[in-house]
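Quick note —
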Amino acid sequence: MVTDERLNEQEIEFITQCLKEGKPLPDSYRHIIPFETKREYELTYADKEREEDILADTFAVPLQPVKTFGSNGNDWTNKLIFGDNLQALKTLTNDPEVKGKVRLIYIDPPFATRQEFRGSQDQKAYQDKIAGAEFLEFLRKRLVFLTELLSGDGNFVVHLDNRRVHYVKLMMDEILGETSFVNELVWHKGREGGASRSHSPHSAMPTEYQNILIYAKRRDQRFWNAPLGPYKESTLQSVGKDAKGWFYKRGRMGRTPAPWEIEAGVALKSYISDDPKETREDVIRRLTRPGAKYVTIGDVWNNELVKQTTVTNYPTEKPEDLLRMIIEASSNPGDLVLDAFAGSGTTGAVAEKLGRRWIMIDCGKLAIYTMQKRFLNLREEIGNKGKPLKPKPFTLYNAGLYDYRMIKELPWEEYRSFVLKLFQCRDEKHRIAGVELDGYLGADDVLVFNYKKHKDVVLDRGFIDDLHSILGDRVGRRFFTVAPAASVAFLEDYIEKGNTRYFILRIPYSIIDELHRKGFTHIKQPVSEMDANDTVDAVGFDFIQIPDVECEYYLDKPKGQVGLEHGGRDAVIKIEKFESNIISKKPLHYENMETLSMVMVDYEYDGKVFNFDEVFYAEDLKKQDYEVHFDSNKLDGQMMLIYIDIFGNEKREVKKLSDFIGRGRM
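Predicted structure written out below.
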């Protein structure tokens, strides 16, 4: 064993014991152990994992199509994915249509500042709760997979603020390489409403900008359309002269080509003149040509360039103008654009308007329904103005929380393929002792039980005995059988026979500790608007379990008003019971209402697509004794209500005004 001379025997013994027990070494050892590194520098922090481990250990989850909006035969269909983006990204790295094919990745991750932001109506929007090293590793894992998806000539754009941008730049340098850094854009938003968020109550320097890092997979191959801004005559005033003639000077010494454009995207030749008789005024006159509309812009984007219009009022929504400039600069029509923190869907909406293909991922039900509505109600112009725009087909997918009824309805081969992916098994048919098996989990054999073919067969202890009598010592330490829970007659995760443990991978999922090193973690939905941007590292997958919901529907007089007919009354939904039905190895008990996340409403439900109009968060409902109030005039036809628990499960109900009349208080 080669050691540094500064390590004594006691320290060596301590390090050895830590390695045996899997404990992290104290930071004090970092500088005295002669580690080798492939980089000159790197960002170090607690619980940082190796890239190789991130790629290998992340749980991949198959994409379950829920609904396709529109149709286009066998061509590309845009993807709207509900689920933890880390697990979804791992899955996309196995998709040959996506891996290495994404021309532009734009992400606007949570800023991890614990800073409370305010929405357009001065309401609490969200509060990031991932901080410090935890946030850095949370983001780094996703950056590793996103880099795998980026094309060789692609651009990687990360939107941050000044509190974390320096850490993330170091992290991006480490993952993509320092030479892949292209530039940092400053989005100078200005003081909104005459004030601005500041670093602290005592700060004398309010923050008026956000930071946008631009990286390339390979800088020498990157694709880039110089972004254009509106032409102004004042941009031509920086004209100077040297021994070789007149030139346009962009705030620095030396001869530089003129950057302006006559028409968008058509660069003019360098405006350098050797005519000794030409004056400064002649140069300006010559350069100020009729019809000039655009000029290339620099790396500070202000409100003149980025119109701060909102479409959805979703917390942290970015203006379409900002994404227009980024998407036009870093992609061409037909290119693939991906946003893994999609939020309100600005990236997807602008990509659609500009003729790009897109993949949007988010772990929040509010975000998913916000985007679904936005994509189905697009307008041609940026800022969502102009004529209606019919979007190209897109499919809504579940990634990690599945509808088991839809899985059971799949044809056998599709079912078999899906459940193998569900449990991270390699699809590779083979035979042992005449028994046809379906694949491998690591090095262990896997059998997918054909419950459709053997409808009357029950997997009991006798089934395991028969299987073992045939396979015997021909299989290894573990053998896995995938089967519906209803077909299994015992409760244990495995039965031991000889040197082999026969595991049953039940559907719905029975959590088996030996499948992966990390414990199962649900995606969590917010209970207040403040938490709308919270994220979590989900591990594994689960199946939709519809919550139990009981409500009373009645009409009531609005406060302070008397003598109104029912058309002027408040419609009231009194939630009396809300309980989740969670399947877990460890019994879980929640009090009534404890798992309620939000209630979403579509007041004009067309019977086909939920087009949500309003959301009521559990935290606000609790203050109102769990009553949803709205003007009954909003309910002309029928409405859909979606009651969502903190795990993402839904209970849907369709109601008409007549369902409120004659019930409860009048």
